[in-house]
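User: Can you fold this complex?
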Amino acid sequence: MASVAFLGLGIMGYPMAGHLKNKGGHNVTVYNRTRAKAEQWVAQHGGCFAATPAEAAEGKDFVFSCVGNDDDLRSVTTGAGGAFNSMKKGAIFIDNTTASAEVAGELAQQAQALGFAFLDAPVSGGQAGAENGMLTVMVGGEPDAFDRAKPVIDAFARMVGLMGSAGAGQLTKMINQICIAGLVQGLAEGIHFGKQAGLDIEKVIEVISKGAAGSWQMENRHKTMNAGKYDFGFAVDWMRKDLGICLAEADRNGAKLPVTALVDQFYKDVQAMGGKRWDTSSLLARLEK
Ligand code: NAP
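Assistant: Here's the predicted assembly.
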């Protein structure tokens, strides 16, 4: 049993912290900017909450974070009242936010100078994966810190991989998002075409999902797409944040991402339609406009 802090009890962080307490059996202190959520978490799971990230992190062996973007991550780590002000030597900070490889490198360096380790560890698997403790975790950092952290991360994951040094977890998550972007647009176009052709979409998907076109998105999203239901899931705003990170990294490393850049603009259209919080499968709504 380890002493653990978790910063950021959003859609993902709330259940992840729950698994660390209940499945992992760890002593968990939580912090959330909006205090009511931290109070609710403690009422549900026990443990305790802290008023600042620094207070939550003090004396802990492992400190997790799952906040929004680079700036939010800087705020809970190196900002005023941030966790880096109180991390104990030899501890490990594990960041589950989807952020840039740049901020991961920057924080890993600062952590090393302060005498603790930093792992960038973004996740994939969505809200359902977080709630079921079945996330995929892509980690960047030093192997010894990874080996110590993995048994703790396992409480909310079904796959945890060390991808390379600092930033490699975030780079792997970028590949994940690049692969999803074009695929969801393809699925949206397929369903749109099927509707225009007057076919029974359920029947079409039942058959083609068993062949070469099958995908997680097809299996898990076709029903809601067919019903025009998007008020759940992975928000378009978050996807645009992620694709922005991918496109900026591609500018640096010279990769060509023509489809990713195009789909990013399609998501901009969805935002303009009022779909900022809609699931990413709402690319179909844009075609049906
Ligand atoms: P969310 O529900 O919007 O939660 C964000 C959390 O971060 C909240 O606890 C929020 O606190 C906190 N936060 C944001 N900015 C902060 C700041 N400046 N200082 C302190 N706390 C701050 O988001 P989510 O869906 O859990 O996603 C979290 C991260 O995981 C994002 O990077 C996202 O891209 C990634 N992710 C999400 C999914 C998904 O399906 N949702 C899947 C994979 C990866 P408040 O409660 O006070 O707002």
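The two ends are 53 Å apart (CA to CA). The longest helix spans residues 168-196.
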